[in-house]
Fold this sequence. Notes:
By secondary structure, the protein is of the alpha/beta class. The chain contains ten helices and eight strands.
Amino acid sequence: MKLILLGAPGSGKGTQAALISEKLNLPHISTGDIFRDNIKRKTEIGLKIKSIIDGGDLCPDDLTIEIVKQRLSEKDCENGYLLDGFPRNITQAKALDESAAPDKVIELVIPLEKIEKRITGRRSCVKCKSSFHVDLIGNRKDCPTCGGELFVRDDDNPTSVKERLAVYKTQTAPLIEYYAKQGKLVPINADLPIEEVFADILKVVK
């Protein structure tokens, strides 16, 4: 099974990706994770990416496509994949169709006004990397899981959130129409408890 998770920042892609990956035994492939891994290992591509990011620019399509193609050629992707964060635009989607077209595209749907509240209320743990929301933990400063210090990510502020949502609407949202025309798009109501969203996803991918 080849799956793509689509959705605005804060729609729950990371949470659902982890659950889907474990349940269906699919490698969860995040472009952000690939970038960070290559930068950490100081690969040729990683050095290119670091130079681009340090210059304040986004990684260009050709380089992003090259990295994802390399990752999808690895052995653990022989029986499928779960892509999160790729494709981000039509150019990337067309490149993926040429090499490893998806079977289904899961769109996590949630009103954009609720996303801002979700993200700005998010707290992350320094130690175990878990995320929590102030609606559940209040003003707590320590992680309920491991006791580590909780912090607010730099990009989880209102100004940054508005900018990220604007980029999503202009670049990524057109993918919804692209995959809908292919008959591969499956909208899922993501404005529900995590377990219910996951159950709805399993109904359409099994």
